[in-house]
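I trust your eye. Have a critical look at both lines of this record:
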Amino acid sequence: MKTFVSPGNATCCSILSFFGIIFLVVLGVAFDARVEVLTEFVTDPDDPSATAKACFTAAIVYACFLGFCSCQSLIHRYNARNQIQL
């Protein structure tokens, strides 16, 4: 099986994607609930619901990266086990 990224990059991408998903979902829920700290100031977004939707969309993109990089890590492990060692 062919891999596109190195094992270290796949692991790093998986970890960063996992924490990015958590952060974006929490931020999206906070904007959707119109938390005062995020929505009541002049410089804050005019439409918190649209901002929440953008956070959830970005979390979906991160989930796709997590799936891809996790598959790459599994392929690296599979290839390492099946190598003939002399």
